[in-house]
Each structure stands twice: as structure tokens, then as C-alpha cells.
């Protein structure tokens, strides 16, 4: 098998019609299109400790009033909606990327969860949801002596 290197751009292509090439290059490499193709769901870390599960959800730029957390049977749903008010005022934007609409993430809870012991806290752009375990599910650690 032979490897053949193809040129990325022909030298004479720009001389024919440079405007067309510049438009297509800027259109397909613009971050506006690539940003729309990326999903807008925040990343989540799930940590299990001896007494609880902790969900850390990265959602900067929101307020704690923007979040809704619902528990339905064994499903917890974390959603946020930020309403952007467009004011035309005296600003004329050539590109505007401040538009984070909404997201929703759902997680299945195991049987060991204590549904009365769920707390949420939003600090520095990270939503921390702490889900406690039932008392009988918490394993106590002890040292066993071999005889």
C-alpha cells in the first residue's frame, strides 16, 4: 500500500475566485456552527461514599433559582432553565454566544437511597446534590481478629 499526500489547497484556486473560497472556509470553520453541534448537557461526577451518593454537576453562569430537582420513584431529574431577555438597546452584536437555554439530566437511584435525605447546594458554578443512604445500607467498618 502506498501513502499519497494530497495537497490541502491548490495555489491557483484563490486566484480564480478568492471570495468564494474565503466564504466557504469561514462558514465551515466558524465556531457558531461547531457550537450548535455540541450537546449542551453539563458534565456530572458521581461519587459514592459510605453514607451517601454525591452528584457534582458543572453548570456555571446559572443561579440557584434556575434549577429544579424532582424525584419520582427511583428517578432523580435535575433540570435548569435560564431565560435570556433580549434587549436591543444601543448595542449592535456581530456575534452573540450568551445563550444557554435549558438542560435536563436524569439518573436512576438504587434501592439503598433514603429519599428523605436529599440535599442540594449550588456554589461557584457547581451544583452538589447529596443523596443519603438508608441506615441498613451503610456498612460499618470494623477490624476482625483472626484466631
From TrEMBL:
Pfam families: HSP20. Residues 35-147 form the SHSP domain. It comes from the Bacteria. PANTHER family: HEAT-SHOCK PROTEIN 20 FAMILY MEMBER. Belongs to the small heat shock protein (HSP20) family. This is Hsp20/alpha crystallin family protein.
Amino acid at each position: 500500500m502506498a501513502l499519497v499526500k494530497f495537497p490541502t489547497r491548490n495555489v491557483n484556486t484563490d486566484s480564480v475566485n478568492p471570495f468564494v473560497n474565503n466564504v466557504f472556509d469561514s462558514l465551515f470553520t466558524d465556531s457558531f456552527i461547531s457550537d450548535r453541534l455540541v450537546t449542551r448537557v453539563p458534565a456530572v461526577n458521581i461519587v459514592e461514599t459510605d453514607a451517601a451518593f454525591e452528584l457534582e454537576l458543572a453548570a456555571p453562569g446559572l443561579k440557584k433559582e434556575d434549577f429544579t430537582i424532582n424525584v419520582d420513584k427511583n428517578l432523580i431529574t435535575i433540570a435548569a432553565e435560564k431565560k435570556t431577555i433580549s434587549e436591543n438597546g444601543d448595542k449592535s452584536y456581530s456575534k452573540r454566544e450568551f445563550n444557554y437555554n435549558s438542560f435536563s439530566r436524569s439518573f436512576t437511584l438504587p434501592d439503598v437511597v433514603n429519599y428523605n435525605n436529599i440535599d442540594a447546594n449550588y456554589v461557584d458554578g457547581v451544583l452538589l446534590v447529596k443523596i443519603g443512604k438508608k441506615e441498613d445500607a451503610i456498612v460499618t467498618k470494623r477490624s476482625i481478629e483472626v484466631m
